[in-house]
Specification:
Radius of gyration: 17 Å
CATH topology: Ribosomal Protein L30, Chain: A
Shape: elongated
Number of helices: 4
Largest sheet: 3 strands, antiparallel
CATH architecture: 2-Layer Sandwich
Length: about 90
Amino acid sequence: MSEGQQFEQDIEILELLNSQKSILLYNDEVNTFDHVIDSLCKYCDHDTVQAEQCAWIVHNNGKCMVKKGSYEELQPICNALTEDGLSAKIH
């Protein structure tokens, strides 16, 4: 295998490893803690404690990663969160 082919293969492997995405939830001044917690439990399969911790992180830091997965897995979840009034994006 030539050096160029090895380099291309290494890049393909790195792209596969980095294919995992995250949903970031952002702070807003609109939604209540209860609404954020309920949405995270409903759409991200968080338990109440995990959802509450994420809500506090968002409140204090402005954002929090709430779910990891492939883009295809996360897209409907992110859409549901935004349709529920939350500010979320896939990164």
